[in-house]
Amino acid sequence: MTQFLSLLLNGISLGAIYALIALGFVIIFKASEVVSFTQGSLLLLGAYTIARLSDPLGFYLAALVGIAITAFAAFVVERLIINRLRGAPVISLAIVTIGVDIILLTELIRRIGSDILNVPHPWGGDSVKVGDVGISQNRLIATIVAGILIALFFAAFKYSSWGVAMRASAEDGETAALMGIRLGRVSALAWTVAGALAGVAALFLVGSPTPGVSASVYTVSLRAFPAAILGGLDSTGGALVGGLLIGMAESLAAGYQDQLLFLGRGFGDVVPYVVMIAVLLVRPSGLFGTKELTRV
Amino acid sequence: MSEATATSPGATRAVPRSAPAPRRSFVRPLVLAILLILLLVAPIYVDEFWLRTGFAVAGAIVGAIGLNLLVGTSGQLSLAHAFFLACGAVTYVFVSGESGGIGLADLSGLGWPPLIGMIAGVLVAGLAGLLFSPIAARLRGIYLGVASLGLVFIGQHVLNSWTSVTGGFNGRSAPEFSLFGFTFGNKDPELFVVGVPFREAERLWYLGIVLALAAYLFARNLLRSRPGRALQTLRDSEVAASVMGVNVQRYKGRVFLVSSMYAGLAGVIYALSIGSIAPESFGLEVSILYLAMIVLGGLGSVGGAAAGAVFVSAMPLIFQRYADVLPFVGRPGEGGLAPGEAARYLFGLAIILVILFEPAGLAGLAGRLRRKGRDPGGGRLTSRSSAATSSTTTDVPSDRPAQGSTS
Amino acid sequence: MRTDVPPVEVENISVRFGAIKALSDVSFTVEPGTIHAIIGPNGAGKSTMFNVLSGVYKAAEGEVRFGEHRLDLMRPFQIAGIGVARAFQNIALSSGQSVAENLMLGRHHLTKAGFLASGLRLPRATREGKRHGERVAEIAEFLELGDKLHTPVGVLSYGDQKRVEVARALCTEPRLLLLDEPVAGMNAEETDRMAANILEIRAGLGISVVLVEHDMGMVMSLADRVTVLDFGRRIADGTPAEVQAHPEVIRAYLGSGDEIDPAEAAAAGAIAHHPSETPGTHS
After folding, report:
1. Using alpha carbons only, what angle is made at residue B165 by residues B160 and B169, rounded to the nearest 5 degrees?
2. Cβ–Cβ of C77/A295 closer than 8 Å?
3. CA–CA gap between residue B37 and residue B32 (Å, rounded)
4. Any domain includes C242
């Protein structure tokens, strides 16, 4: 039982990190109907920057700069590329984000090589124990931070003028523009925020129990995509639920690997995608995504 | 995306009247004929490296044409292509491969004729596509992009785990191809053409031409006919297509199936060209590579997909061959970029530039050059008439009054 | 007189988008072989109604009957299959393809060639394509698009594109034709031509036509019957003359205020009715 609880807790904390990445995904989608494939490489950029700057700047400053740089990179992508493609078919936009992802990823992997860079989290690899069940401090803090950020954004979407503007431009860009909403601004802000979220996620992802920045961080971050999809691409709540679901599934599958050997070693790594496909079979718009009004 | 220009009511357009029927210029067939002849005699003059590359490129052409049908023509973004390539390759290797193995690698195989293996590869990939198609059919095009990611990772996991069939992490070798007793290897029979020994590379070259040509023609026919029209309308507006009588879900499922069968064949060719398969050859990077091919070539254009395939396949090899001459490419160990890296930068950049500035890709460029030849004043409008861009429609008519423009 | 065109019976149709009621309890009947117009101020629900008729929107309540079929229960492509065609308000053509290719899409539900037959270019597929291509050319001729068959739709004038829309709808060999603002953005001459075409269609094919239009003059001179919507409700239904004099209608268009003198309103309507004073264009 303790093992189960441990795994569950671990899964929730991992899921919180996924939820942050997925949230960035959803924010971009809600603001501009673009599915951005750059979240993964942006996250790696954040991780790399934090790792490299930790020595000269110390952890906290490096973390701040890392998140800022990731946010800025996202901003640049939006201004230079996405902005010029307003009105283009969504598939072109998605593909262009893949292009950006390729370039960013290639560059980062070249610099990282086969090394594992270290990020000196002040809370190190310590664990917190609740009864018999343990969870790494890193993950605990991650969960708290993620929870706060997600709640903040949920509120912002519903109540702030920025949130309303964002929802309006996603639903009907032309009318929104006619109503005075600066589509460019909304989109730029959305991307910047998504970048920052990726940076925050990166910060925690490279800590205990999976410390170190390596090329595999990218592969791990990709699992946030299923989280976003199965929650519903346009649902912030869905990003949270999706993230948690994926995190828990992955953690449990990895933890019980020995009992699941018939599914292949390392099944935990693909379980997010299996769960996603299973959900999509019954809910093509994701668990909380808005269903299409139109029938075909 | 608005393609048509609006006329203010009453204005006339000074547009040259088009001829009643498309004039059949003889330049195009002539060029194609010359190209074909060159391809046919190539093995006599060209060295083995390029012949082998050519066969691999033929595989890429087949795969790219298939992906283009799905992504370019029908507007369904998919990153699962590598998965279906794997299906084809693994099936071929299993069906035509022998059982047994050395030590740890205990492989099973059916040992059937390679032709059956090839056909089975196509069919199994198609079956996999069919199994996934209910999802593909019901998802909005863009959801499919992310969902298809899943297939690639699941596929690689299976490749790594199902060791008896796939050879696991180390992979397994691919049996030589043969057709009714004629092997595509170095012997059986010994073959000489005008004094030149026709060994494996030469024989596979021709196989590649035949398969690539067949793939090309099939797709071309498809696009010019009823299903092709339905798919293009589907891309532009699912609602409009459905209202016009197209069973959108069925067509989305079908095109996914066709695309995966193309990928299956490409996978078999890949297995033959490398001589073996390994899980790492079927990862996300491969799907993205194919995406780059069709974007570069011009989404929606069959010829473009082929051109893009040639370009993307050749790039890393050219970088490798001419590393000394190219300033930024260095050998492993030295400074500079590895050829693979340099190629990846190029593709990423090319994707971005193409989408930003010339969405119709190489096909669009070719079209523009042709039109420049015919009508130097040629409007920019027509240069975008490749199927890459969407039509002038809002998905669902609203109650807003019609405007004079068609956006 | 055609016997295979049944009336279209719209009964108590309501459409809801979340909390918004786009259509409330709308009913009307389109008699076979007639031209029936749906008019109303902007946002009245006209296009929503069309979407219900085409099967694009699902009605929350009510029924739509067309002969033995229940249109409200069918998917759009099934509705197309039983002979209901639609020309869109904002043009839904494939701008990169030629007029002929766009028109051929209209033949989709009348043809069978599948992926295999088409990819292999089997004789039956090519024969079918040729046969239907001839019919398509006929219909194009009828709408004066014969010489533009091979022109990419994207280079055509707006008016021509609208005609291609209508032609494509005709290519489906419909029994019911839904025209969504067919003369929007056209000048006076094009409007008159289209109006004449619509009358020819009705006379020659004997099919029912439902028309959404803002051009009052055109509506009044073409329509056999008019249904007026406002804020998703039906506020009037009758002959053009009846509807013109209807106080609710006048109020909806001109805004409420003082007592409206029916005689005055009828006189005003009569002036707008005269074709030569049709205000041609609006944008």
Report:
1. 25
2. no
3. 9
4. yes
Cis peptide preceding A209, ω within 30 of 0: yes
- Cβ–Cβ of C90/B406 closer than 8 Å? yes
SS3 of A105, please?
A: helix
Interface membership of C181 toward B (CB under 8 Å): yes
Is residue C69 located within the same domain as residue C160? no
Is residue A296 less than 8 Å (CB to CB) from chain C? Answer: yes
CB C111 within 8 A of CB B250: no
Closest-CA residue of A relative to B154 is A270
Mutation target vs A (from B152, B162, B352, B407; most A CBs, 10 A cutoff): B352
What residues of A are in contact with residue C55 (Cβ under 8 Å)? 295
Cα separation, A89 vs A256, in Å, equals 44
d(CA A126, CA B135): 43
Note whether C156 and C239 are same-domain residues: no
Task: Provide the whole-model pTM.
Answer: 0.87
Q: Is residue C88 part of a domain?
A: no
CB < 8 Å to A294, chain C:
51, 56-57
Looking at this predicted complex, what is its ipTM? 0.89
Question: Domain span at residue C32?
Answer: 1-83+174-283
Instruction: Calculate what percentage of chain C has a pLDDT beyond 70.
Output: 89
Question: d(Cα A165, Cα A175) in Å, to the nearest integer?
Answer: 11
Residues in chain C within 8 Å Cβ distance of A293: 17, 57
Which numeric CATH code is attached to A2-282? Answer: 1.10.3470
pLDDT at B4 over 70: no
Of A2-6, B101-105, C49-53, C103-107, the range with the lowest mean pLDDT is B101-105
Q: C191 and C276 share a domain?
A: yes
Distance CA A112, CA A101 (A): 16
Q: Which of residues 42-81 of C touch B (CB under 8 A)?
A: 42-48, 50-51, 54-56, 75-77, 79-81
pLDDT band at B373 (very low <50, low <70, confident <90, very high): low
Query: Is residue B189 reached through a cis peptide bond, with omega within 30 degrees of 0 on the bond before it?
Result: yes
Number of domains chain C is built from: 2
- Residues C63 and C178 occupy one common structural domain: yes
- Residue pair B84/B129 in contact (Cβ under 8 Å)? The answer is yes
Where does a domain end: C171, C204, C221? C171
Chain centroid to CA B197: 32
Specify whether the CB–CB gap between B174 and B271 falls below 8 A: yes
Burial zone of B373 (CB within 10 Å; 0-12 exposed, 13-18 middle, 19+ buried): exposed
The number of angstroms, rounded, from the C-alpha of A246 to the middle of its chain's C-alpha atoms is: 12
Q: At what angle do helices B248-274 and B81-96 cross, to 10 degrees?
A: 50
Residues C148 and C272 in one domain: no
Q: Using the 8-state DSSP alphabet, how is residue A117 labeled?
A: B
pLDDT in tens, C1-21: 678 999 999 999 999 988 889
Domain boundaries of chain A, sorted by first residue? 2-282
Percent of all residues in chain A with a pLDDT value above 70, rounded to a whole number = 99
Query: Could you read off the pLDDT of C141-184 as tens digits, one per residue?
Result: 999 899 999 999 999 998 899 999 999 999 999 999 999 999 98
What mean pLDDT comes out for the span A52-61? 89
Nearest to C181 among B232, B385, B402 (CB): B402
Chains touching chain B through at least 3 C-beta pairs below 8 angstroms are A, C
- d(Cα B20, Cα B22) in Å, to the nearest integer? 7
Residue numbers in A near C76 (CB within 8 A): 295-296
Contacts (Cβ under 8 Å, ≥6 apart) of B343: B315, B316, B319
SS3 state of residue B332:
strand
What does B343-386 look like in DSSP terms, one character per residue?
HHHHHHHHHHHHHHH-TTHHHHHHHHHHHHHH-TT--HHHHT-S
